[in-house]
Specification:
40% helix, 2 domains, eight-stranded mixed β-sheet, EreA/ChaN-like  fold, two-stranded antiparallel ribbon, alpha/beta
């Protein structure tokens, strides 16, 4: 959810007037003019897939979270999905997992748990009122199931989980053992950077630090690592690569994070609870197949594309979201408190403007055949808002050019969106 990248639109995709070469809106198929009416068909289309990637066009819009909750409930109840993955740090999602499985003290409420789990900026992405309702639902659902049938929650992000992951590893090997010493070497190397991994980046850029291979060495020294040991050490390897790379090659830093997302989700299939599939929540920029955008020539890859390539497109369902105008919860600068902002009407020539011009409030795009997909594969501007946002800089900073039917398997749109509600203090 952090360091979200957006790139200037490809000029080759636009006409001289700044409009995309779109067909008249009346000729473009809309599966359902009300997403609720087409919802059953959407779930039906998802049957038989292994991974369900549910995207949001911003991390601060109520409708995107609410619709993902609705879809996820049906994936759980109708298709038997038992694994939910968030674009959040490993340790934060681990606390959510403990809560929904009834492993925390009975007096711990949903708001208290979310506030403690998501204490790092930007807290509102997961500590919000939509998530309060969702974790209460998951806990109630799990309370009626045996332990091996419960829904699990995992976090696939890795930027700020170094301290927690190293603390988890602390008790894995006995004192005096070879592996324990390897762990202590790794911990001692990370110690100056635990409070803020960006300190390692700065030390590396200044030439005060060269990096280490200690996590790689420890993983290689374990004869039969547990699933959690393998995941955590692989995360620590990715974290170091990420911060070592970000200052001189932000595209490759993005790719490191994307490859880790994909590796982590695939690793969950080693667990029996993933037998009926995995649902993952993340920004459109991560879940939408990047091969359907104008940034492919930069060498960028992303989570959605990697999942399609590794599992086969027939095993992955990607649902995107979009909105024309309204309000959003975001920060004006990195690290500042979020505020409710007005989202200006979407740029002409964009997917959002095209759908709004059709007069629909909340349509669902779901390609029924190759002809439908072909019509929605023309290049269109497509907006994305991150945790920071400055409406006056909308173009080109918050748009890319995308072939919607290539990027997604379906997309839901709102004419007017509302800002996500921050979590009320417990």
């Amino acid at each position: 959810m952090v360091f979200l990248l957006f790139f200037p639109v490809g000029q080759g995709s636009l006409t001289a007037g700044g409009q995309s070469p779109s067909l008249p809106v009346a000729t473009l198929p809309v599966f359902a003019t009300d997403a609720a009416q087409g919802f059953a068909s959407l779930i039906e289309k998802m049957k038989g897939r292994k991974v369900f990637l549910l995207g949001d066009a911003s991390h601060g819009t109520d409708e995107y979270y609410a619709f993902r909750k609705w879809v996820t409930r049906h994936l759980i109840e109708d298709l038997g999905v038992r694994v939910v993955v968030l674009e959040s740090e490993w340790d934060s999602a681990r606390q959510v997992d403990s809560y929904i499985r009834g492993l925390l003290p009975a007096e711990t409420g949903a708001r208290q748990m979310l506030g403690e789990a998501f204490s790092r900026w930007p807290q509102w992405v997961w500590a919000n009122e939509e998530m309060v309702e969702f974790v209460l639902y998951l806990k109630d659902f799990n309370s009626r199931l045996p332990v091996d049938k419960m829904v699990r929650c995992y976090g696939m992000d890795m930027q700020f989980a170094t301290d927690a992951s190293l603390r988890f590893l602390a008790g894995q090997w006995p004192d005096g053992s070879f592996l324990r010493q390897k762990y202590l070497d790794l911990y001692e190397w990370w110690l100056p950077y635990l409070e803020d991994p960006m300190l390692f980046n700065r030390a590396y850029v200044d030439g005060r630090e060269t990096g280490s291979l200690l996590a790689t060495e420890l993983l290689g020294a374990i004869a039969e690592p547990t699933q959690e040991q393998r995941r955590i050490l692989t995360m620590l390897i990715a974290v170091e690569q990420y911060y070592r790379t970000m200052s001189h090659d932000r595209y490759e830093a993005w790719n490191i994070r994307s490859r880790y997302f994909a590796w982590y989700v695939r690793s969950l299939f080693d667990s029996p609870e993933a037998a009926q599939g995995i649902v993952a929540w993340a920004h459109n920029s991560h879940v939408g197949d990047m091969s359907g955008t104008d940034v492919e020539d930069t060498g960028l890859i992303n989570f959605g594309r990697l999942m399609r390539e590794s599992l086969g497109p027939e095993n992955v369902f990607i649902l995107g979201s979009a909105g024309y105008g309204g309000t959003v919860l975001a920060a004006t600068e990195w690290g500042r408190p979020p505020v409710v902002m007005t989202v200006p009407p979407a740029r002409g020539g964009s997917l959002e403007a095209l759908l709004e011009s059709g007069g629909w409030d909340n349509p669902l795009l779901l390609w029924e055949d190759k002809e439908d997909a072909g019509l929605w594969s023309q290049p269109l501007l497509h907006r994305g808002i991150g945790v920071t946002y400055t409406p006056e800089d909308e173009m080109p900073g918050y748009y890319l050019t995308a072939q919607i039917a290539v990027r997604y398997d379906a997309l839901v749109f709102w004419r007017k969106t509302t800002a996500l509600q921050q979590m009320v203090a417990p």
